[in-house]
């Protein structure tokens, strides 16, 4: 307890001319205690202008307890502050069901998080990267998590500053997770497209969703898809068949069937 209190004091009250060395070493030592209760006692350093200190704090949170709400909040903020490597790898360590739900709810409407997440997605699109996050979500997939994932997908496609979200591997995997529990998701997307303010916005959103709709199109739902087409805005109706051609190109046997 003595050293715990001393180290917390050093982190919060360094006497090192602002170079951050004492604080970084203090955080490294505090991580050995693995006490979640320490995180909010030293979290003022998360707002430091010192990127090395912010990175050390993120690593401290991960080493202490990546499943705590405190840690998850700081991982999300770390992503938005540009700490892509440490914060993103921290997300992969979130494995508890309630923690997964807390994370997904927290980022479901956080546009700045998603902009940061997708900006460097190609670098982290691997088995020990973003695929691990999808696996962790899949391990606890239930109807509540599916509903949050749907909310995320609908939100992401409304963010105008994200480049080619329709071709995102992460989005594709999340969409397939949703579909594994609810194979009518394709029609919820059509509903989302239809309810836009005007036909032009509906058409633009349809363009964005084309690749995703193609992923979800199967021989089982193809007839229902075309029965829904006449209910879509007229400009979207004219384009609706494109989804089938994309499915043929991208879905292999399913598309060609």
- Compute the separation of the termini in Å: 67 Å
Total strands: 0
SSE pattern, N- to C-terminal: HHHHHHHHHHHHHHHHH
Radius of gyration: 22 Å
| Largest sheet properties | none
**Proportion of beta-strand residues:** under 5%
**Contiguous uncertain segments of 5+ residues:** none
* Structural class determined from secondary elements: mainly alpha
Spatial shape:
elongated
Task: Look at the structure and give the mean pLDDT.
Answer: 92
Helix content: 55-70%
Number of H/I helices: 17
Q: Describe it for me?
A:
- The protein has 257 residues and is mainly α.
- The protein is built from 17 helices and no strands.
- It has helices spanning 2-12, 21-30, 51-64, 69-81, 84-91, 97-107, 111-119, 121-124, 130-139, 143-156, 169-181, 185-194, 199-216, 222-228, 234-239, 242-250, 253-256.
- Helix 12 runs antiparallel to helix 13.
- The longest helix has 18 residues, at 199-216.
- 31% of the residues are buried.
- The mean pLDDT is 92.
